[in-house]
From TrEMBL, chain A:
Protein's gene: dhaL
Pfam families: Dak2
Protein name stated in the entry: Dihydroxyacetone kinase subunit L
Key words, A-Z: Kinase, Transferase
GO function terms (MF aspect): glycerone kinase activity
Organism of origin: Antribacter soli
Record lineage: Bacteria, Bacillati, Actinomycetota, Actinomycetes, Micrococcales
Gene Ontology CC: cytosol
Keyword Transferase: yes
Domain DhaL: 6-218
Cleaved signal peptide residues: none
Automatic annotation (TrEMBL), chain B:
MF (Gene Ontology): phosphoenolpyruvate-glycerone phosphotransferase activity
Biased composition (Gly residues): 149-167
Source organism of this protein record: Antribacter soli
BP terms from Gene Ontology: glycerol catabolic process; phosphoenolpyruvate-dependent sugar phosphotransferase system
Protein name, per record: Phosphocarrier protein HPr
Keyword Transferase attributed: yes
Residue span(s) of domain HPr: 177-260
Pfam families for the chain: EIIA-man, PTS-HPr
Key words, A-Z: Transferase
PROSITE patterns in alphabetical order: PTS_EIIA_TYPE_4 (PS51096), PTS_HPR_DOM (PS51350), PTS_HPR_HIS (PS00369)
Superkingdom per UniProt: Bacteria
Family matches, as InterPro entries: DhaM, HPr-like, HPr-like_sf, PTS_EIIA_man-typ, PTS_EIIA_man-typ_sf, PTS_HPr_His_P_site
Chain intervals for the UniProt region annotation (Disordered): 147-177
Length: 228, 260
C-alpha cells in the first residue's frame, strides 16, 4: 500500500463521511458532559475541508498540484485540513485538531510515508494537541486516544509492521482508549466542570479521534480504487 | 487620541463580549476595545478568523498612535487579549502561534474575563504599557476574594512601608508618607464610575496612593472596599508628589463625583 498525498486525501474524505455518520452520536456524547456541539462542529469543519479539496481538485493541473500532479506531498493535504478546521470548527476541537494536523503536516513534507513516518505524523499530532490543550493521559480527553494510538503505532513499527499494520494498530488503540474514557473523571476541558458526574460517559473528543484514525486505516486498506 | 494599548475580548457569546466591552468602555473611553465572539456559524463558539481579524484590527489602531522611539514593543503598546472559556483561549493561542509577527505586541492575559477586562481597560486608559495592562488583568483575579487582597496587594512597594497616620498623632509617620482623611459623600459611594475616576487620576499623578490600605490605582481594589456614603476613608501617599496626590484624591471623594 502506498501512503501518498492521494491516500491523505482519501483519508480526509473518509473522515468527513465518518463524522457525518456519527454526527448525532458525537453531539449526544457532548451533550452529556459538554456543551453539545461537537458533532455539529466537526461536521461543519470536515464538510468545509471536503469543499476545499473539491475546489483544489477542480483546479488540478493549474496551480494547486505540483508539476505532473504526482509530486504533491502528504503534508500539503494535511495543511489544508489544519487551516480549514481552525477556521470552521468553532469549539475547542477547532484549534486542537487544527494544531494537530498542522504539526503533522510539518513532519509529512514528503511524497510517500513509510511506517516510521506515520509514527512521526501521529507523534507530531499528539504533541500539537498537548501543547494546545495542556492535557495529559488519563484526564478523559482526546489525548487519551491519540496517546494510545502513538504507543501502538510505535510498537508495531518497531516490530516491523508495514504501513497498513501501523495505521491499523493506531486506529484500534484509539478506539479502545476512547471506550476507556468512560469510567474516567474529567479534569480538563468543559467536562471538568461536572466533576464526579463526568464519570460513566465517553469523551466525545476521544471518540472523534478514533473515527479519524479509523478513516486513515480504511483509506489505506481500500487503496486508490476503493470507494471514495 | 487613543491609549497605546488596545483590548480584544474573545467570548463564545456575542452578548457577553459586547456587555463586557460596554462595561469596560464606560470607565475607559479612550481605549480601543474590540470584540471577537461567536462561532463560524454565528452561534455560540469561537472562530479563528474572527479572532484573528479583531486582533489585527486592534493592533492597527494602536500602531498608529505608538511613537516610533525605538523602544521595545512591550514597553510601548500593543494589544491585550482576554478570553472567556476553553476554546476562546485555545483559539487565541493558535492565532498567536501561527502569526509570528504578533509576538511581543499581542499578549493573552489569563485573568478573569469581566474583572480583568475592566481593570485592563482602566489601566490602559492611564496610558500604561503593555506589560502594565497585562499585570492589572492578572491581578484582577484577587478581586474575587477581597479578603485575599489586604494592603499587601499594592505590591512590594507597600510591603515595608507602614504608613503612619500623620494626623492621628499617635505614630511617627514614615518620612515621606502623607495621610489624609475624607468621608464618602455620594450615596452610592465608590462604585464603578467613581472608582474608575479615582484610579485613573492616581495613575495620571504617578504617586503611590492607598485608600484604606488598597492600591488606589486599581479600580477593582477600590470597588472592593465597598465604601458607601458616610464611610471615613484614609488616603495615604508616598514618594514624589505625595502631598498633591492626597490633596487631589481627598478632593475628588469630598466632591462626591457630581452625584450629590
Amino acid at each position: 500500500m502506498t501512503l501518498d498525498a492521494d491516500w491523505a486525501e482519501r483519508w480526509v474524505r473518509r473522515a468527513a463521511e465518518a463524522v457525518e455518520a456519527a454526527k448525532d452520536e458525537l453531539t449526544e456524547l457532548d451533550r452529556q458532559i459538554g456543551d453539545g456541539d461537537h458533532g455539529e462542529n466537526m461536521h461543519r469543519g470536515f464538510q468545509a475541508v471536503v469543499a476545499r479539496l473539491d475546489a483544489a481538485a477542480a483546479d488540478t493541473g493549474s496551480d494547486t498540484a505540483a508539476p505532473g500532479g504526482s509530486a504533491r506531498e502528504v503534508g500539503d493535504v494535511l495543511k489544508t485540513v489544519a487551516t480549514t478546521l481552525m477556521s470552521t470548527v468553532g469549539g475547542a476541537s477547532g484549534p486542537l485538531y487544527g494544531t494537530a494536523f498542522l504539526r503533522a503536516s510539518k513532519v509529512s513534507g514528503r511524497p510517500l510515508l513509510d511506517p516510521s513516518s506515520i509514527v512521526a505524523l501521529l507523534e507530531a499530532a499528539l504533541e500539537g494537541i498537548t501543547t494546545r490543550g495542556k492535557a495529559t493521559v488519563g484526564e478523559k480527553t482526546m489525548v487519551d486516544a491519540w496517546s494510545a494510538a502513538v504507543d501502538a503505532a510505535e510498537r508495531t513499527a518497531r516490530d516491523g509492521g508495514d504501513e497498513v499494520a501501523v495505521l491499523r494498530a493506531a486506529a484500534e488503540a484509539a478506539d479502545k482508549a476512547a471506550f476507556g474514557t468512560i469510567p474516567l473523571l474529567a479534569t480538563k476541558g468543559r467536562a471538568s466542570y461536572l466533576g464526579e458526574r463526568s464519570r460513566g460517559h465517553e469523551d466525545p473528543g476521544a471518540r472523534s479521534t478514533a473515527l479519524l484514525l479509523g478513516a486513515a486505516m480504511a483509506a489505506a486498506l481500500a487503496g486508490p480504487g476503493g470507494a471514495a | 487620541m487613543s491609549a497605546p494599548v488596545a483590548l480584544v475580548l474573545v467570548s463564545h457569546s456575542t452578548y457577553l463580549a459586547r456587555g463586557v466591552a460596554e462595561l469596560a468602555a464606560q470607565m475607559a473611553p479612550d481605549v480601543v476595545i474590540r470584540t471577537a465572539a461567536g462561532g463560524p456559524d454565528g452561534g455560540l463558539g469561537t472562530s479563528f478568523d474572527t479572532v484573528q481579524a479583531a486582533i489585527t484590527a486592534a493592533l492597527d489602531t494602536v500602531g498608529a498612535t505608538v511613537p516610533d522611539d525605538g523602544g521595545s514593543p512591550r514597553a510601548r503598546g500593543g494589544v491585550v487579549v482576554l478570553a472567556d472559556l476553553g476554546s476562546s483561549v485555545l483559539t487565541v493561542e493558535t492565532v498567536l502561534e501561527l502569526d509570528e509577527s504578533l509576538a511581543g505586541s499581542v499578549v493573552l492575559a489569563r485573568g478573569p474575563f469581566v474583572e480583568g477586562a475592566v481593570a485592563a481597560a482602566v489601566t490602559a486608559h492611564g496610558g500604561a504599557t503593555l506589560d502594565e495592562v497585562v499585570a492589572s488583568a492578572l491581578d484582577a483575579a484577587h478581586s474575587f476574594s477581597p479578603a485575599g487582597t489586604p494592603g499587601g496587594a499594592g505590591g512590594p512597594a507597600w510591603a515595608g512601608g507602614a504608613g503612619g497616620e500623620a494626623d492621628a498623632g499617635g505614630e511617627r509617620p514614615a518620612s515621606d508618607t502623607v495621610t489624609g482623611r475624607v468621608t464618602v459623600r455620594n450615596p452610592l459611594g465608590l462604585h464603578a464610575r467613581p472608582a474608575a475616576l479615582v484610579s485613573r487620576k492616581v495613575a495620571e499623578l504617578g504617586a503611590k496612593v492607598r485608600v484604606d490600605g488598597v492600591d488606589a490605582s486599581s479600580v477593582l481594589q477600590l470597588m472592593a472596599l465597598g465604601a458607601i456614603e458616610g464611610r471615613e476613608l484614609t488616603v495615604e501617599a508616598e514618594g514624589l508628589g505625595a502631598a498633591e496626590a492626597v490633596r487631589v484624591v481627598v478632593g475628588m471623594i469630598e466632591g462626591g463625583f457630581g452625584e450629590i
